[in-house]
Amino acid sequence: MSKQRIAVIDYGMGNLHSAASALRHVAPDAEVLVTADKAAIASADRVVFPGVGAIRDCVGEIRRLGFDKAVAQEMESGKPVLCICIGMQALMQRSEENGGVDCLGHFQGSVEFFSSNPQFQAARDEGSSSGEHLKVPHMGWNQVQHAIDHPLWQGIENGGRFYFVHSYYVQPQDESLVAGRAHYGIDFCVALAQKNVFAAQFHPEKSHSNGLQLLSNFVRWNGQF
Amino acid sequence: MPLAKRIIPCLDVDQGRVVKGVQFVDIRDAGDPVEVSRRYNEQGADEITFLDITASHEDRATTVHTVEKIAAEVFIPLTVGGGIRELADIRKMLNAGADKVSINSAAVKEPEFVKAAADKFGAQCIVVAIDAKCVSAEGETPRWEIFTHGGRKSTGIDAVEWAVRMTDYGAGEILLTSMDRDGTKNGFDLGVTRAISEAVPVPVIASGGVGNLQHLVDGVIKGGADAVLAASIFHFGEYSVPQAKEFMRERGIEVRL
């Protein structure tokens, strides 16, 4: 079997090291590239689309460097694609962050602020009186419920904990895309799956054994479910 | 409440070695930072905080290299602090594999820096570290002020007001250290922990003074902290992270086991 190649798309927004290290850890025989080279991305066997930071700068850089088209191509190609955190949010139509930002629009739906959600506000206010604080960002280890059976959940306990750090969450119009949910004042979508694309709000590369299991599933996934 | 309270071992690193000072003075060697991080990762720590306490004076290249080595094998969040003064310092640490950076003196010197940093990199990776000392006399309403330079320099700024201002500027988390308690093993300063925890909308990490597992419980239940940070109880093998989590769980605190 020839050595598989995994491309982590580098659009200059920092901390791709973690994702690459974790992938190398679960796939020691693979070639893991952190790259901005579109030809290298196109010829890779699988692609990771990460993201950290503020959405306006992320989407701005993605567009400026032409990765909007590259990401669309990879998603069309049928090869396994994993989007992480802002990489997931960027796939939606629009985000409430930074005063409102148009995103890439691969999925119908929006990216919402926890603190703007009335149900979240009510839960937070109720919590304050009982001494329980719902802080934003939603930061730390939360339980992820599997909404569907998916090859990437294999070997991971339903309700297992993953590491989150975000203030905005994805709300897809099509509920059937939801692969995982968590609860933080409200129930919200933490993973999306469609054909060869899996997107996670949490950080598998920072989620210890559950995260490494998910990445290990990803590097062995044939892109179908 | 499914979000787990976090236990964060802290590595104070001086010239490439983990050290622990009693009130920042008496320094004791606690090992190689990469080995120590690996051990906490295996034990199930929820995050690791790396504070470069020589950063003000020494070459930072060593720190970047150490952070890279830790990030290559530790798959939990890593916060790096000490000597973060410019956007370029933040970029460098994030590129080396840090998930968050902790800003302390630079925020005091130039509060707008926190705004610029949060705007550029997102609030989620900007931690503002606050070193607080109680300045009220006994019998007075308790009041805390922030100190810089390892607790040596007074600023006259009220700690609670400062924490609120920093979160307004975009800090995504507050790392609160009591300079009165740090290294004493007498437990957190629960008064300032509670005051700041209730005043800010972002998570608060309590730090300074942990000497036993009950102190961790108190930090969460009485102090209202979202995470508890400790160094020497873990470094010198008095307690392990799983022991701490089990102790907290038995007392009704949600933890990741």
Structural class of chain B: alpha/beta
Number of domains of chain A: 1
Tell me, rounded to a whole number, the average pLDDT of chain A: 93
Query: What is the mean predicted local confidence, pLDDT of chain B?
Result: 91
Structural class by helix and strand composition of chain A: alpha/beta
- Note the run of SSEs of chain B as H and E: EEEHEHEHEHHEEEHEHEHEHH
Assign the CATH topology of chain A.
Rossmann fold
Q: Please tell me what the overall shape of chain A is.
A: globular
Number of strands of chain A: 14
* Global Rg of chain A: 17 Å
Assigned CATH architecture of chain A: 3-Layer(aba) Sandwich
Largest sheet of chain A: 8 strands, mixed
State the total count of DSSP E strands of chain B.
12
Main sheet of chain B, how many strands, which sense, barrel? 8 strands, parallel, barrel
Strand content of chain A: 25-35%
- The first-to-last residue Cα distance of chain B is 15 Å
CATH homologous superfamily title of chain A: Class I glutamine amidotransferase (GATase) domain
Helix percent of chain A reads: 25-40%
Write the topology of this structure.
The complex is a heterodimer of chains A (225) and B (257).
Chain A: E1 5-9, H1 17-26, E2 31-35, H2 38-43, E3 46-49, H3 55-64, H4 67-77, E4 81-84, H5 86-89, E5 94-95, E6 101-102, E7 109-113, H6 118-130, E8 138-143, E9 145-146, E10 161-166, E11 168-172, E12 178-184, E13 186-194, E14 197-200, H7 208-220
Parallel strand pairs in A: 1-2, 1-3, 3-4, 4-14, 5-7
Antiparallel strand pairs in A: 5-6, 7-11, 8-10, 9-12, 12-13, 13-14
Chain B: E1 6-14, E2 17-22, E3 26-31, H1 33-43, E4 48-52, H2 61-71, E5 78-81, H3 87-96, E6 100-103, H4 105-109, H5 112-121, E7 126-134, E8 144-148, E9 153-158, H6 159-168, E10 173-178, H7 190-199, E11 204-207, H8 213-221, E12 227-230, H9 232-235, H10 241-250
Parallel strand pairs in B: 1-4, 1-12, 4-5, 5-6, 6-7, 7-10, 10-11, 11-12
Antiparallel strand pairs in B: 1-2, 2-3, 7-8, 8-9
Helix pairs in contact in B: 1-2, 6-7, 8-10
